[in-house]
Amino acid sequence: MAGDWIKVQKDTPDKPEVLAIASRMNLDPDAVVGKLVRIWSWFDTHTLDGNALSVTYALLDRLAGVTGFAEQMAFVGWLNQDGHVLSLPNFDYHNGETAKKRALGKNRQEKHRSNDESNANSNASSVTKTLPEKRREEKSIIENKNGATSVAFVLPDWIEKETWDAFVQMRKRIGKPATDYAKKLIVDKLIKFKSNGQDIKAVLEKSITSSWQDVFEIKNNPADIVRLTVPSKNEPDAALEKIKADDKKAVPIPLEVLAKMAELRRKA
């Protein structure tokens, strides 16, 4: 039945997002994948479009069996929160009835193509073997007939081209070259980050230096807040300076009062 399973890519345990969650939570990547499957399955069963109303991080943490797991999903961009709604990005691509039918159709198509090639290879030796280039061309035509559409990618002018090119080259270096469609999805995320006040160049540079195939919002470091509010050792403490200033303004205690205080101490 279509509702009894979800689609999981075979390279999921090696994705940078999984490795980031595993590192931040001190978990094994395989354990992280298992907990992700639990949460993805819950969304697939209990939501129609990946949007869960009035669901909290605490519920997802209970499903995963680890406190803070949902927050880490949000940190790597695999969970969004909009008011009282939690949602999974790209839910329709990976989950739901449409995605499952698409995945099953792809499997059937590949199986059918494999059978056709096997039958062709068993024909008489007089049949000329199809060249690899020709097979790739035919495969492309078949995929286009099944509804695949190419997406022309244009880099927005507010993204620095040098930084973007470095990000694309990094993707190639780690064996994850970005298609035009993947680039469009990344730019869509950068648009959201930009509206949240993020430095887009810094976001891309963080992914480059960390060898991440995706982009993530840069979270504020609590230590930065401390550095902004606590004076350094070289800076005068405002409270101490005020005490010193008040001491200078204070009227000296008369000698007779000091003598009276000394006499009272002796009697005590």
Walk me through what this model shows.
The N and C termini lie far apart (94 Å). This protein folds into 3 domains: 2-94, Arc Repressor Mutant, subunit A; 151-237, no CATH class; 238-267, no CATH class. The mean pLDDT is 78. Strand 2 and strand 3 form a beta hairpin. The radius of gyration is 31 Å and the shape is elongated. The chain is built from 13 helices and 3 strands. It has 268 residues and is mostly helical. A 3-stranded antiparallel sheet has the order 1-3-2, with no helix packed on it.
Q: Topology of this structure?
A:
Blueprint: H1 16-25, H2 29-46, E1 51-53, H3 57-64, H4 69-75, E2 80-82, E3 85-87, H5 91-94, H6 96-121, H7 132-145, H8 161-173, H9 180-195, H10 200-210, H11 222-229, H12 238-249, H13 255-267
Antiparallel strand pairs: 1-3, 2-3
Helix pairs in contact: 1-2, 8-10
Q: Which terms summarize this structure?
A:
3-stranded antiparallel beta sheet, mainly alpha, Arc Repressor Mutant, subunit A, 3 domains
- Please state the oligomeric state of the protein chains shown: single chain
Q: Which stretches are low in confidence, meaning pLDDT under 50 for 5 or more residues running?
A: none
Give the distance, in angstroms, between the N- and C-terminal Cα atoms. 94 Å
Q: Indicate the percent of residues in helices.
A: 55-70%
In a nutshell, what does this entry contain?
The chain has helices spanning about 15-25, 30-45, 55-65, 70-75, 90-95, 95-120, 130-145, 160-175, 180-195, 200-210, 220-230, 240-250, 255-265; strands at about 50-55, 80, 85. It is mainly α and about 270 residues long. The chain folds into 3 domains: about 1-95, Arc Repressor Mutant, subunit A; about 150-235, no CATH class; about 240-265, no CATH class.
